[in-house]
Amino acid sequence: MLKSPRGASPQSPGGLESQRAARVVGRTVTRGLALVGVLLLSACMSRPPIDDFPDDAFPEPEALAVNDGSIYRAGYDVPLFENATARRVGDVVTIHLVESTAASKSSSTTTSKKTSISMPGPTIVGKPVTINGNPIFETDVNGANAFDGKGDSAQSNQLTGDITVVVVRRLQNGLLQVRGQKWIAINQGKEYVRIQGYIRPIDIQPDNSIVSTKVANASISYGGKGPVASASAPGLLARFFNSKWMPF
Fold this sequence. Notes:
248 residues; alpha+beta; two-stranded antiparallel sheet
C-alpha cells in the first residue's frame, strides 16, 4: 500500500503526484516484464537457422616437392587404363538424386469380454427366504466390455535431380567422403539441396557420376528460406502450443 508523504493527505497535491508516479512505474514494470516474456518465448520457439557448408569444405592437399623439367612428376600422374574419375581430395563428382521412399502401416485390434454370475437364494423348508414376497438373497451379476481400435499411416517422398559435390576426405580403405550443396534463388526465396556421405570409387561411372542410392551414411536435405518458406511455417503461438512442453 502506498503511503502519502508525511504531512500530506491523499487529496493534497503531493499525495496525488506520488500516486501518479507509482502508477507510471507499475505500468512500466508490467510492460517490461511482458516484453521480456515475449522475447524469451520467441527465443525458445524460433526455428533453428540453416547452417551453410563453409566455402573451404576440404583441406588443400600438401604440395609435393617436384623437380621442374622432369618427365615424371609425382602426384600428377594419370593412369592410362583408368577413367578420369574422382579419387583425390578436392576432386568433384556428380550425384544423381533418385530418392524415392514409401511407407505404410495399419493396425486393428478388437477385444470383448462378458461376465455373468447367477446365485439363487437359499431355501428353508422348501421355501425361499423373502421379505414381503421378494427374495432377498438371490444375486445376478452381468458385465460386458468391448474395445475396437484401428489405425492407418502412410508416407511417401521423392527427390530427383543432380548435384555436384567435392571429395573432402579419402579414408585408408579407399572410401571417399563427399559433401556439397546447391543454392537456387527464385524471385524472393532461395532453395537449397544438400548432401554428404561416403562413396566407393568403384561405383563411380565413367562419366564421373554416381547415383544417390550408392552413397553410404547419406544425409540429404532439401529446403529453403525467404518469404515463401516463412509464410508456410507455423506461427509463434502455434509452435509453442505444439511443442513438447505443452502437456495438453
